[in-house]
Structures are given as structure tokens and as C-alpha cells.
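queue> pop job 88
queue> type: inverse folding (structure -> sequence)
queue> payload:
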């Protein structure tokens, strides 16, 4: 019985909730006639007005008829209750405001229309639709084929554009200019440029990026001249020759194809093309019109693709109204279907009853769907019906057989520029212009530890590092061709040996600079593998590539000198070093007394003096004690003599168990324990420093520095060299001509080659001169510990600096600013000794690479003050241990304690 009762309550509760939801959500707030009465009143028809333009009524009427036919063939007009759509199309006798208003009021509004489709052809007609919709409070949908839509927030006037308006094209052009880094342009105007109005909008907008704005330098007007080839060529030559620095880009406006073709051909003949000038078509072109343009290469053009006809937009506008009426009918069929605005001069009182136009306009603003023109929605803040319009950006390039062809390099849709072919999109950077948005060609030189290389993966990509081209050439056209093939995805075209992955400190710095300064780059390795020097009247290596224009920037371990500074610009140094001398070790046998090296001679003397003093006091305590092993003590079987004390102290010092007598006096035993603690400290320090003695078995060539007699007078066959065409060789040539003449036959092409000559058996060189940072790296990776830098470092004209270098132009300050605002890169800490130094330990950095004693030295620096130095005669390692505070205390504490205990013992046992 209870089960039946609770079941009844559950069903009752569920029914009440359903009834309540139906009352709140489905039933209207105000009573209205039954839908059948409404349908009979409107004749089962929803009426829609269409205001045809007076000048093109036939074309628009035909498009309207096609749209209605297509909607009928689809079998779904989206109207409820099987209602039919009746379009009331009327044409105004003229385009003046009075005729349009009379046509709307007398021929369209009186029919009880839910909305009105308008086709304004001029900007004045768009404004008239704006005022009429606001006054009548009837939704107007203006389908705009030409002109700029109004920027209003009128919910009764929705604007649908069939093409990208001029303001959108201006945004596209500015995006292209921004992407390419062109902040200044020149315009050439042909016939028909006034119709587009793009140039005027560009001048008004003048919206820039970064620290400056886009600037139109000049406008060359050809609209009033004859399109004769000779006249246009003379006109362009006269105006461009007056300007010493031509603009980076030229915008060509005009609808006359003959004039545009003549201008482009003249520019090609005059050499006003890439890389000096980049031409851009200022007005949109159709894809078919591109085939008539074949010059110049690098020309940029744009145009709308997959453009929909007018009837598609009309059909989507009809569907927008039908969907809004259907949604409004669900809530208030009386307001959605019965129009209470049928007389322009008798508007209903909005305070008593809302108009049907207000009601339907609210649903129009919240309707969206996918139509024939793409996704359709309403942008309420601008009162626009958004449709899909896609613009492609094309660039004129050469195909595989050398013929000019148009390549899609980008697209514009929804106010956003998408780049498709990154390598083909950006033009080359030009000297004197900002690097932002440009594509630079960067040259580097493989020099460890600043730049390393590894092989690419199976797909030709670099999982780590940056792709760099190692083609072994400095020919600009060859490099252009190779980089273009890779940008087009033809990596298989490149030989396997050409593709490398560059990584290292300088490459990381280059990546950070590109990110901060917004530029992209193509990286390649210098063809001849040289830094650069004057040879045959021309510069080679990195400097030669910069001066010839093959490269825009060089990033590697590059040094400043006066000759290079006159030709190229350097940034502020991000790493400072000097020149050094690298030698190879020689294996020698350690002398007999090598075991004494871990401790200083004064330390040895102190240990043995303390040993004998301790033995003396042990003997004295034992003989004065009544419990001692003496003839007068209680233990008379054995006698503890001074020799017994020495035997005990030596046994404790060397850690060996021998037959010895131990004192019976408690004071002597306490002194013996103190001696044992002291011996433990000495023994641990000795064994820890013994490893340094083993390193001392290697000796090195004695070279005090660049002024050593062995270098200036190599009479005994002392061989030394450096890297060819490097800053080190330039320094030797200027500062020591005779020495340079001698060492030329021993110079090597690269630093690793020079180091390899030191490590051969027998060695081909006795010393190698190069940047000290590079030599320190070679020492650190020497697994056999055979290399060492010796002598005092010497610099090239002050300090040698690792640099980023450019041609002599005015944007290095921006790179310097980016360098010194880059955390973690500007302040390198390549010296591995920085983590091992300690106030009590003085180390020679040149020797520490082959030592594995850092942990041991750090563990004992609180006990002993260690000093590490190199013997001037043999360059053998010598560790000096000076007694620290703990050792001094352990030595003097037993003597001080025994001195105080001796009088007390004498007084206590005095008879």
C-alpha cells in the first residue's frame, strides 16, 4: 500500500514540474489569437519586400528570380505551418530620397512585409536605407555590391557585402606591407584608380606598426597621359632617377590593363625590380587577369577567389529572414506573423504595444547558419551580415623550366593574413631598411664551441638547432636557387652533403635575435671556411660575403680589428677573449723525492719536531706518575723509555700496527689521543694531495708568452703556427712581420687542424697560437690531457671580442639593444673554473681542465690553504699546503695542555 502511495506522489510531482515548465517557457506572456486565426488572416503567406535599384533593376530582378527558384527547388523554405514566401518587388522611378521613400511606403509597407531586401548602388542610397529603416522600424537587409558599408549599430539595418569593401582591402595592403617590413612606398596611378578609392583610404588610415607608420612618399599620376610605352618609360626614369634611395615597394593603382602592363614592362626594362624595388598591384585582380601579366618577377598581386554570384547572397538573405521568423513564431506568433506597421504615417505607439519589426529584428541579430556563401552570422556591433570572402595573394616566380608563373604565397580571410609559402613570401632585406618582417641571409663559420654542426634527420629536418646550407660556395644565385628549392619542399633536390644542422652558442643567440627583432633568415656556412682577409685585392671568407652582398649578416666567433672595422660594422661584443699559446705535454719520470711534494718542507719539519716533543712529554708524564712503567712505579716489569715513546709516535703517524709499549698514566694516554687526531688530519691531507703529484709527471714546453725568445729566434727548429686568414694571423703580420714570415708554412686552415698537428706522434708543431677561448675549449675536450695553454695571454689591439657583424649600415644599434636586453645570452660564462674557485684556493685556469681534483680540493680547503701554481722552469704542478687554523690548533693544543697538567700532577703526588 505504501509503495502505491509513494509512486502516486512521484508521478504527481513529475507532472506538476512539466506543467510548470510548459507554462513558463512555451506559453506566451500575453494572450494572442489561435495560430489558425493568424494563418487565415495573413493568407498562409509571409511577405518580404524587395526594393530594386532604378538603374540595374533587370539584373537584380533576374538574380532575385533565380534565388526564389533555387529556394523552391530545395523544398525547404524554413517557414512554420507550411507558410509560403511572397516577395513584393518594386522599383523606384529614380534614386532620389523622395522617390525611394514614396516607393517603400506606398508599394511595399502597405503589403504588411516582415522585412525588406534593398540593393543600394551608391553610398547615398546606403545612407537612405539607414534612415528609412530607423524611421519605419522594419528590418532592412542591404545587399551591397559596391562601396563601403556604414559603421553603425542600427538593429533595423543589416548590411551584407558581396565583395571585400575598400576598408578591408586597405587592411590587406597594410598587412602585406607590415609583413614585408616596408614602411615607405610610392604609388603609380593609371586610369581608373579614382574609382577604387583605395589610395585615399590608405592616406586616411595611415595606421602603422612598431615605432613608425606607413608613409606614402609620392604618387606618380599617369591617368592623364597616353599609355605609350616610350612616354611611360621616360616618365618613370625621370622620377626614379631623382631619388637616390628608391622606395622598397611601389603600389600600382589603375583599372586600365594596357597602362598597367606598360608600367610593369618599363620598370623591368629600367631595372626597377628586385632586389631594388618590389612592385605590388594596389587594386584586386581576378585569377584570369593574372595570365596577361608576365613581368617583373617578384610582383605581388591579390584578388578574390571562388566569388559567389548575386543570387547566392539573395538566397542566404532570404534564409536569414525565414529562420528569424520561424524562431519568433515559436514564442509570439502574433508579433511574428501579423505586421502592425502598414502605414508610414500612422506608426503604432511603442509604449502600448511593441512593433513586429522590433520583435523580428531581435531574432535576426541572433541567427546564424551555413549558407551558400559560407558561414552566415550577424555582427551586432556593426550591423553587418558576415559572409565568407577569401582573397589569395600571388607572387610572380619562375617555375622549374624557367617560365614565369604565379604562386599563391598567402591568403586573407576574416581580417587575418595567413602565409602559405614562407620562403617565397618575404623579399630580401635591403641595406638601410629595418629588419623587422624581412628575411635575411646569414653566414656562419663552424668554430667550436660557438658553432657546431650535425647531420639532418631522414626527412631533411633538424630536430635540434637550425638548418644551415653547406654548399661550399659563395655564389649568390646558387644559394638563392638552393634556398628556393628547399622552401618549395624540394629537399630531395639538394645533395645530402649540403644539408647540415647548426647549433651552439652563436646559433642560440641568432634565434633569440630573430625572435626579438621579428625577422627570418636563411643560414649557410661560408664557402671557403675562412674568417676573411685581403687576398689579391679582394676580401675572402666572411668579410668577402658581406661586402659582395651574398650575406646580410654574419654570426660566429669573429674578432674585431682595424682592417675589418673599416669595411663592416660590428655589434658590441658579447664575449671577450684574447690570444693564447697552446703546447703539448711531454711524459717524464717523477724523481725519487716526488712523494715529498704533497706537503711543504716547513710542514714536514713541523711534523717531525712535534713528534719528538710529544714523545718527550709522554716519557716525562710516565716517569712522574706513580702508575707509570718505571723502576719506581707500580708497573716495574717493563720500563717506558724515550725510545718507546718515539716508537709509539711513529707508529701512529704512519698508521701502522707495531709492537709498542703504551703509557699507563692517564695524562700520557690523553696526549697520545691528541697526537693520533693530529696524525689523522695530516695523513688525510697527504693522501688527498697525492693525486696532484701524479699529474706532475707531465712537463710542457717553456713558453713565457708572445715575446719569448723561442718564438722570435726559432734557431733550434721550434715550430709554431696559427689559422690562415684569421685575426690571429693578421695580428702576427702587423706586430711581428719576421715571426709571421717564418710561421706561414706552419699555418693551418682551421683551429681543429692546428690542434691535430700538436697531437700527432711525433708532433708536427711545437706551439699553436689562436683565440684563447677556442684553445681552452680544445684543452677541456682533450681526453688524453696532453694539451695546455702556457704563457701570458696577449690581445689583438686591446681585447679580442666575439661579434655579430654586418655591412656598414645604420641598424646595428637595434641589434645591440636586442643583445643587451636578452637574458641568459648576453653574459656568457664559458669558463668552467668559475664554479670551483674559493678564497683559500688559488688555481691556474690553464691547468685545471685535465685535473680531476676539484672535489678533493674543495673538501679540504677549510683545513689547509692550498696554492696551485706552475713551476716556471718545467711547468710541473706543485701544490703548496700552508697550515690553516685547524692544523695550528691541533699542533699546539697537546703542548699547552701538558704544560698545565704537569704542575698539578707534581703537587698531587708530592710526598
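queue> result:
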Amino acid at each position: 500500500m505504501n509503495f502505491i502511495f509513494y509512486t502516486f506522489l512521484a508521478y504527481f510531482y513529475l507532472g506538476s514540474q512539466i506543467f510548470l515548465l510548459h507554462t513558463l517557457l512555451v506559453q506566451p506572456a500575453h494572450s494572442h489569437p489561435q495560430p489558425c486565426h493568424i494563418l487565415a488572416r495573413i493568407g498562409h503567406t509571409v511577405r518580404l519586400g524587395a526594393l530594386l535599384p532604378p538603374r540595374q533593376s533587370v539584373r537584380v530582378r533576374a538574380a532575385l528570380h533565380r534565388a526564389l527558384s533555387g529556394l523552391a527547388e530545395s523544398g525547404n523554405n524554413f517557414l512554420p505551418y507550411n507558410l509560403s514566401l511572397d516577395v513584393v518587388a518594386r522599383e523606384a522611378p529614380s534614386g532620389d530620397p523622395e522617390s525611394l521613400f514614396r516607393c517603400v511606403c506606398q508599394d511595399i509597407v502597405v503589403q504588411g512585409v516582415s522585412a525588406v531586401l534593398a540593393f543600394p548602388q551608391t553610398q547615398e542610397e546606403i545612407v537612405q536605407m539607414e534612415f528609412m529603416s530607423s524611421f519605419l522600424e522594419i528590418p532592412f537587409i542591404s545587399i551591397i555590391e559596391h562601396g563601403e558599408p556604414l559603421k553603425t549599430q542600427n538593429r533595423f539595418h543589416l548590411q551584407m557585402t558581396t565583395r571585400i569593401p575598400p576598408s578591408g582591402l586597405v587592411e590587406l595592403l597594410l598587412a602585406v606591407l607590415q609583413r614585408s617590413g616596408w614602411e615607405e612606398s610610392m604609388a603609380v596611378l593609371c586610369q581608373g584608380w579614382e574609382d577604387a578609392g583605395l589610395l585615399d583610404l590608405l592616406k586616411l588610415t595611415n595606421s602603422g606598426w612598431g615605432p613608425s607608420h606607413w608613409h606614402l612618399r609620392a604618387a606618380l599620376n599617369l591617368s592623364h597621359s597616353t599609355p605609350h610605352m616610350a612616354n611611360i618609360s621616360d616618365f618613370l626614369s625621370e622620377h626614379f632617377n631623382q631619388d637616390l634611395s628608391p622606395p622598397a615597394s611601389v603600389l600600382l593603382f589603375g583599372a586600365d590593363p594596357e597602362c598597367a602592363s606598360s608600367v610593369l614592362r618599363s620598370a623591368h626594362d629600367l631595372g626597377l625590380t628586385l632586389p631594388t624595388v618590389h612592385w605590388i598591384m594596389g587594386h584586386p585582380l581576378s585569377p584570369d587577369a593574372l595570365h596577361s601579366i608576365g613581368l617583373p618577377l617578384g610582383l605581388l598581386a591579390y584578388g578574390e577567389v571562388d566569388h559567389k554570384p548575386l543570387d547566392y547572397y539573395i538566397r542566404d538573405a532570404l534564409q536569414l529572414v525565414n529562420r528569424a521568423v520561424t524562431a519568433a513564431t515559436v514564442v509570439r506568433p502574433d508579433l511574428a506573423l501579423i505586421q502592425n506597421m502598414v502605414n508610414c504615417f500612422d506608426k503604432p505607439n511603442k509604449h502600448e504595444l511593441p512593433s513586429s519589426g522590433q520583435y523580428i529584428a531581435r531574432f535576426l541579430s541572433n541567427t546564424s547558419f551555413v549558407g551558400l556563401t559560407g558561414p552566415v552570422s550577424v555582427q551586432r556591433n556593426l550591423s553587418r551580415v558576415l559572409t565568407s570572402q577569401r582573397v589569395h595573394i600571388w607572387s610572380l616566380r619562375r617555375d622549374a623550366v624557367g617560365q614565369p608563373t604565379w604562386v599563391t604565397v598567402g591568403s586573407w580571410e576574416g581580417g587575418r593574413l595567413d602565409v602559405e609559402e614562407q620562403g617565397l613570401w618575404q623579399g630580401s632585406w635591403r641595406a638601410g631598411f629595418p629588419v623587422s618582417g624581412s628575411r635575411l641571409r646569414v653566414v656562419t663559420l663552424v668554430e667550436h664551441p660557438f658553432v657546431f654542426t650535425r647531420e639532418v634527420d631522414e626527412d631533411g629536418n633538424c630536430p635540434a638547432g637550425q638548418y644551415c646550407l653547406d654548399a661550399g660556395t659563395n655564389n649568390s644565385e646558387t644559394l638563392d636557387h638552393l634556398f628556393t628549392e628547399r622552401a618549395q619542399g624540394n629537399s630531395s633536390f639538394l645533395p645530402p652533403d649540403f644539408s647540415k644542422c647548426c647549433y651552439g652558442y652563436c646559433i642560440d643567440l641568432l634565434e633569440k635575435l630573430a625572435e626579438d627583432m621579428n625577422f627570418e633568415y636563411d643560414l649557410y656556412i661560408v664557402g671557403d671556411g675562412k674568417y676573411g682577409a685581403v687576398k689579391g685585392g679582394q676580401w675572402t671568407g666572411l668579410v668577402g660575403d658581406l661586402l659582395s652582398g651574398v650575406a646580410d649578416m654574419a654570426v660566429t666567433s669573429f674578432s674585431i680589428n682595424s682592417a675589418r672595422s673599416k669595411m663592416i660594422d660590428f655589434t658590441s661584443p658579447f664575449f671577450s677573449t684574447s690570444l693564447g699559446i697552446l703546447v703539448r705535454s711531454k711524459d717524464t719520470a717523477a724523481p725519487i723525492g716526488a712523494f715529498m711534494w704533497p706537503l711543504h718542507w716547513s710542514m714536514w719539519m713541523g711534523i717531525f719536531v712535534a713528534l719528538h716533543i710529544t714523545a718527550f712529554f709522554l716519557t716525562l708524564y710516565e716517569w712522574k706518575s706513580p702508575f707509570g712503567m718505571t723502576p719506581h712505579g707500580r708497573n716495574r716489569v717493563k720500563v717506558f723509555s724515550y725510545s718507546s715513546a718515539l716508537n709509539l709516535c711513529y707508529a701512529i703517524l704512519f698508521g701502522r700496527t707495531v709492537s709498542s709499549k703504551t703509557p699507563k698514566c692517564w695524562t700520557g694516554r690523553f696526549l697520545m689521543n691528541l697526537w693520533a687526531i693530529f696524525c689523522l688530519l695530516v695523513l688525510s691531507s697527504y693522501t688527498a694531495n697525492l693525486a696532484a703529484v701524479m699529474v706532475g709527471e707531465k712537463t710542457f714546453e717553456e713558453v713565457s708568452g708572445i715575446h719569448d725568445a723561442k718564438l722570435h729566434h726559432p734557431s733550434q727548429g721550434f715550430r709554431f703556427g696559427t689559422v690562415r686568414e684569421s685575426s690571429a694571423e693578421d695580428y702576427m703580420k702587423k706586430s711581428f712581420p719576421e715571426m709571421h714570415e717564418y710561421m706561414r708554412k706552419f699555418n693551418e686552415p682551421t683551429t681543429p687542424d692546428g690542434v691535430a698537428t700538436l697531437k700527432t706522434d711525433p708532433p708536427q708543431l711545437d706551439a699553436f697560437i689562436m683565440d684563447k677561448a677556442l684553445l681552452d675549449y680544445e684543452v677541456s675536450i682533450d681526453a688524453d690531457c696532453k694539451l695546455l695553454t702556457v704563457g701570458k695571454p696577449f690581445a689583438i689591439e686591446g681585447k679580442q671580442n666575439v661579434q655579430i657583424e654586418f655591412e656598414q649600415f645604420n641598424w646595428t644599434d637595434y641589434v645591440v639593444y636586442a643583445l643587451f636586453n636578452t637574458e641568459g645570452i648576453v653574459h656568457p660564462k664559458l669558463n668552467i673554473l668559475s664554479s670551483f674557485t674559493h678564497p683559500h684556493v688559488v688555481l691556474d685556469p690553464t691547468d685545471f681542465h685535465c685535473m680531476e681534483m676539484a672535489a678533493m680540493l674543495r673538501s679540504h680547503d677549510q683545513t689547509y690553504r692550498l696554492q696551485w701554481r706552475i713551476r716556471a722552469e718545467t711547468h710541473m704542478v706543485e701544490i703548496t699546503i700552508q697550515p690553516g687554523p685547524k692544523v695550528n690548533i691541533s699542533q699546539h693544543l697537546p703542548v699547552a695542555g701538558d704544560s698545565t697538567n704537569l704542575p698539578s700532577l707534581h703537587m698531587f703526588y708530592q710526598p
